[in-house]
Design a protein that fits this description.
About 15% of the residues lie in helices and about 35% in strands. It is an alpha+beta fold. It has a single domain, classed as Thiol Ester Dehydrase, Chain A (Roll), CATH 3.10.129.10. Strands 1, 2, 3, 4, 5 and 6 form a six-stranded antiparallel β-sheet that branches.
């Protein structure tokens, strides 16, 4: 099982009044990693996979420890934990080599923007996602 690795820079504006990265900012980190995974790494040259749109149906986040601002980026590691007919679940860890700051998951629904409705996952998308499928939870 492969994992997608995304390097996320920390911005000064990510900090809150308490001197650590604000909890809401972690959603942006997850979004950046998810978009990099689903669109930049989509299968095939010129493949329309995932390009037609998708919507987030659910986020779940466990904040493990505070992340203070620094110049070094954090890593957002992501993988797939479930592939359904018309949805998928992506799991994440926001971390560096020493520690995990956040564990999270997102349910994503492919969406047909023209028809304004959810759509099924294509065979090509499913094949791509299966390379990242791991149904076991991450180690604590």
């Amino acid at each position: 099982m492969a994992r997608h690795i995304y390097s996320c820079p920390l911005r000064w504006s990510d900090m809150d009044a308490f001197g650590h990265v604000n909890n809401v900012v972690f959603l942006r980190y997850l979004e950046e990693a998810r978009i990099d995974f689903m669109f930049r790494l989509a299968p095939g040259d010129g493949s329309p996979s995932f390009a037609g749109g998708s919507v987030v149906a659910r986020h779940e986040i466990d904040y493990v420890r505070p992340l203070v601002h620094r110049h070094a980026p954090v890593t957002v590691e992501s993988w797939v934990t479930k592939i359904g007919a018309a949805s998928l679940t992506i799991a994440y860890e926001v971390k560096d080599p020493e520690q995990v700051y956040v564990r999270a998951s997102t349910i994503v629904v492919p969406y047909n923007l023209v028809e304004e409705r959810p759509r099924r996952i294509t065979a090509e998308e499913k094949h791509f996602l299966q390379e990242y499928l791991d149904q076991e939870p991450a180690a604590a």
